Hints:
By secondary structure, the protein is of the alpha+beta class. It has helices at residues 3-17, 64-77, 170-294, 302-326, and strands at 21-23, 30-32, 35-36, 41-46, 49-55, 59-60, 80-92, 95-105, 112-113, 124-125, 130-140, 143-150, 152-156, 161-165.
Amino acid sequence: MSKAKWAWVTSLLLAAYAVAYVSWIPPHAVLTQAYPMNATHFTTYVNNTTVYIVQANLSFHGSPAEEQAVMQYLYSQCQHMAVDVLNATQISESEQLWLADVYCSSDGSMWLWLRWLPLRFTAYSGYVQFANATNATVITPVGTFTNYIPAGWYLDPATKAVFMIPEANITLLAYVDRLSAQLKALKAELDKSRADANQTASLAAKLEAQAERLEAQRRALEEALRQREAELTALQANLRAAQAENERLKAQLAQLKAENDQLKAKLASMNQTLASLNDQLSSLKTQLETRVSGGEEGPNPLIYVLPIALAGVAAAFFIYRQKKAEE
């Protein structure tokens, strides 16, 4: 067990040891409804008989003011009553006197034995026995006592045992209390361990469900990645095909440029030829004009040269335009 758990159990044990005994009624006492008549007597009705109840070995010698204070105390304290009848006397046909030990309680959580009233009011007289009870603490309506406590009946809240002091073995009761406290602490620890186990199981189930969700997400991401890789492969293939087509078109363009340059060179050569033919034509015209002016007659050479020159120029121009259109 961890230090924290030991500290927690120890705190429970100390809390259990700190529980004090509370004043109580004897197991054989009888609950009754009775009402205070004066500082020492109560009255009730049993089987159409008026019963007067008096606390044994208790007398009151106070003033009227003290009696009034006592009566107010008894009215508030004696909301519940129990009696242990010691002697019953028939004082008339319809009246009885009970000599008894009388117990009062305001709420049922603890009881006041009226023999203890001298501990609360000095106007009462009566013998109150005390007993040594080492390490014992009792709580009563007339005060809290430790080690040296009033004789009477008490309840152990831990074990619900009712016992009488001084007859009870306080040492044994304390030992039983310690065992009860240990048992209570161990039970609390067991309950806590069970709660922790349930919480751990619940957390494990949640983590398992979360792991399954993450696994499903991982599989979905892997599938998406495979699809992206396939798409990337297809795009790369398309890119390579486009690059190859681009290279082919570049080569074709270079070839066309070379052919165009050749045609330009041919055209330039034809232009030179045409210019030469034009020069020759001009020369022939000059010669012809000279002959005509000199009276010479003969065949005109322009009739043969001019059609040939025009045909060559037309052919060269046609070839050039066709190449331009192909580009």
